[in-house]
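pls design
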C-alpha cells in the first residue's frame, strides 16, 4: 500500500482539484475529475511517470468533467490501450451533455461535453492504481454525484459532496440539501473517522475532523 501515491492539480478558474492516483511500483494510475487545463494535467502525469488506465468522474459539472474528452484523446494519441471514462451516475448525463454550451456562457475555452464509456452506480467497484474502490451514490450537489472510497487504503475521493469545513452547493435547480446531508450522514460518516479524503476544491481532510468541526454536520 505504501507505493500508492496521490497528487492534486487545481484547474480552471474554479480552482477545481483534479486528482492523480497511481502505484509507483507498477507505474499505473487514474485521473479523477480532469475539469480542464489538460496540458497541465498531462505534464503532471509525465512528471509522476505513470500510465493512465482510466479517467473517473465524480459528477457532471464542467469544472470536473470539461477536460475529460480532450484528455482521453491525447492519451490515446500516444498509443497503447484505450483509456475509458468511467462515471458518474447516469443521472448527470444532462450536465455532461451541456458542458460546451455552459463553458461558452462563462467564456471558457477548451472544455467539451463528456460521454462516459461506463456509467457507474451504487455498489459498483472501480480500480484506482490497482486497488478496489467502492462506488457510493451521494446526490444533492448533483443528482448523479459519486464518491470513490477504499477502506483498505483509508482514502476517498469525494468530489463536491463535502469539503474541509463545508459541503457542496445545493442552490441549483436540481440541488437537494436534504439529500446531500443524508448522503454524508449515511454513507460517508460510516466510513470511519480515520478515512482521509481529497475533495473537489480546497484542502483535503478526514471524516473524523469533519464530524467534529464541520458546521453543516452539527
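designed seq:
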Amino acid at each position: 500500500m505504501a507505493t500508492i501515491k496521490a497528487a492534486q492539480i487545481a484547474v480552471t478558474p474554479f480552482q477545481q482539484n483534479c486528482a492523480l492516483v497511481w502505484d509507483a511500483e507498477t507505474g499505473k494510475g487514474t485521473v479523477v475529475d480532469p475539469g480542464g487545463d489538460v496540458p497541465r494535467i498531462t505534464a503532471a502525469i509525465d512528471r509522476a511517470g505513470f500510465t493512465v488506465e482510466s479517467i473517473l468522474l465524480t459528477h457532471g459539472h464542467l469544472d470536473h468533467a470539461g477536460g475529460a474528452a480532450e484528455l482521453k484523446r491525447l492519451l490515446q494519441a500516444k498509443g497503447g490501450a484505450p483509456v475509458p471514462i468511467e462515471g458518474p451516475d447516469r443521472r448527470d448525463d444532462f450536465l455532461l451533455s451541456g458542458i460546451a454550451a455552459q463553458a461558452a456562457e462563462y467564456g471558457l475555452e477548451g472544455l467539451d461535453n463528456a460521454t462516459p464509456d461506463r456509467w457507474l452506480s451504487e455498489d459498483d467497484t472501480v480500480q484506482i492504481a490497482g486497488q478496489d474502490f467502492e462506488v457510493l451514490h451521494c446526490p444533492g450537489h448533483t443528482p448523479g454525484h459519486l464518491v470513490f472510497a477504499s477502506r483498505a487504503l483509508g482514502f476517498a475521493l469525494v468530489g463536491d459532496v463535502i469539503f474541509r469545513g463545508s459541503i457542496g452547493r445545493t442552490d441549483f435547480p436540481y440541488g437537494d440539501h436534504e439529500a446531500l446531508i443524508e448522503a454524508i450522514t449515511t454513507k460517508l460518516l460510516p466510513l470511519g473517522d480515520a478515512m482521509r479524503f481529497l475533495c473537489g476544491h480546497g484542502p483535503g481532510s478526514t471524516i473524523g475532523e469533519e464530524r467534529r468541526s464541520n458546521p453543516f454536520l452539527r
